[in-house]
Amino acid sequence: MAGNCIGQALEGASLLPENSFRVEVDGILLGDFDSALATGGNRSVIKKRRPGAGDQPMRTYSGPQDSYEITLKKTLLEGQQLDIKAFWDWKNMGDSDRRTVTIITHNIKGVGVVRYSYLEAWCTECPAPSNLEAHKGEIEGVSVEIKISATEEIMEA
Q: What residues does 104 pair with on adjacent strands?
C-alpha cells in the first residue's frame, strides 16, 4: 500500500479516544500510547526534458519519498508512570541503529484491530527516563518521536 495511506490511517485513528496504540520494537513490547501521529512521507517530483525534444513539454517522474516521523504520545495520570528507558537508550544509539517498529491499534475492548510495521526506524526524540511519573493532582504528557524509512506493511491484527 502507498505510504501516505498509512500516515493518514494512523492520523485518523489517533483522533478516536477509544483507540490505544501498543508499540513493539524488534518484537519487544515497549509500551501503550494514547495517540500515534504519522507525518511526512511526501514524494518529490522530477521534471525532465527528453534530449532533442525542443519545445516539447517536460515529462514528470516520481522522485524519492521522504521518511515519516511518528509521534507517540501518552498522558500520565496521577500515580501512572511510563518506562521509556528502552526508547532513551535507542535514541542515544543514533540513526545508524535501525529497527523494526510495530504499532498495533487496539479498540476500546483492547482487541487489536490493525498492525502497522515500519522497517528501518530510529528514535529521534525522547525525554530522559528520570522523573516520568505523574504526582498527586498532576497530569504529565510524554512524547516520543520515531523516524522511519518509507517501507511499511499493513496487516490485520
A: 22, 115
Distance from C-alpha of 151 to C-alpha of 1, rounded to nearest angstrom? 10
pLDDT for 26 equals 92
Q: Does domain 3-156 have CATH number 1.10.287?
A: no
Residue 24's pLDDT is 92
Q: Any idea where the domains of the chain sit in the sequence?
A: 3-156
CB 82 within 8 A of CB 74: yes
pLDDT, mean of each 10-residue run, the chain (157 residues): 43 55 91 85 76 74 77 78 80 85 88 87 82 60 78 63
Q: What Cα–Cα distance (Å) separates residue 43 from each residue in 3, 49, 66, 146, 156?
A: 10, 20, 6, 19, 26
Residue 19 DSSP one-character state: -
